[in-house]
Write a structure and sequence with these properties.
mainly alpha, two-stranded parallel ribbon, 3 helices, globular
Length: 85
Amino acid sequence: MPYPHAMGRLLGENLRQTIKAASEAGAFPYSVSIGVATCSRATPSLAELFAMADRRLYAAKGAGRDRVVGEGSDLLPEAREARRA
């Protein structure tokens, strides 16, 4: 797969939209926030991969929920810090 992270974000977005549509059709509203992380040669361990996904999940929740956050997102703390500098 040439662009695994893009595919992960696309899969996450499709999942988010499917859940949102099901929520709108049901009696109880709910949403999903998704943090996407993919493994590469630069990923030192499985623990770090999960930590990346967790940071991105909390960035999605902090930005208002019902969204997908992955690598390069403006919602990530490191992106916000870079804008301040």
